[in-house]
């Protein structure tokens, strides 16, 4: 079930921004659509290993509600649905770019320090 988008009151701009990208998958969906363009549901799911169908549907609906993602339904048999970033979603992805660069530097620093890594995938250069 999709909840109504929170519309404030917010304490600060970071509060408003984090409200829109909260959750594990939203920033990764933004990244996937930004790097690969328009994607069908199955393509998104394959591009995000570990996401369940239910969670992906929920996150995409919330992102559509927040104006980040455009959902295009083609009336054909079998039905085809494509997702793409809106201008608002693209601008959010641009805002998150510096956070991605910070995260890459953190991963590099942790690797040099010999810190144990999580069980997650290694960051590839194209993922920033």
Dominant shape:
globular
Strand content: 5-15%
Series of H and E elements: HHEHHEEH
Low-confidence stretches: none
Q: Structural class, from secondary structure content? A: mainly alpha
Biggest β-sheet: strands ordered side by side in the sheet: 1-3-2
Describe the overall structure:
With 128 residues, the chain is mainly alpha-helical. 52% of the residues lie in helices and 11% in strands. It is built from five helices and three strands. It has helices at residues 13-21, 26-36, 41-47, 53-65, 87-113; strands at residues 39-40, 69-74, 80-85. Strands 1-3-2 form a three-stranded antiparallel sheet. Helix 2 crosses helix 5. The longest helix is centred in the last third of the chain and has 27 residues, at 87-113. The chain starts with 12 loop residues before the first helix and ends in a 15-residue tail after the last helix.
Short description:
The chain is mainly α and 128 residues long. The protein has helices at residues 13-21, 26-36, 41-47, 53-65, 87-113; strands at 39-40, 69-74, 80-85.
């Amino acid at each position: 079930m999709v909840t109504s988008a929170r519309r404030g009151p917010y304490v600060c701009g970071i509060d408003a921004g984090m409200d829109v990208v909260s959750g594990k998958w939203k920033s990764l969906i933004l990244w996937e659509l930004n790097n690969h363009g328009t994607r069908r549901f199955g393509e998104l799911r394959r591009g995000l290993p570990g996401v369940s169908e239910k969670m992906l549907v929920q996150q995409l609906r919330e992102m559509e509600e927040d104006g980040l993602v455009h959902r295009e339904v083609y009336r054909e048999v079998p039905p085809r649905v494509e997702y793409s970033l809106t201008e608002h979603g693209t601008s959010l992805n641009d805002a998150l770019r510096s956070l991605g660069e910070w995260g890459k530097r953190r991963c590099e620093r942790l690797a040099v320090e010999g810190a144990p890594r999580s069980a997650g995938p290694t960051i590839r250069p194209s993922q920033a």
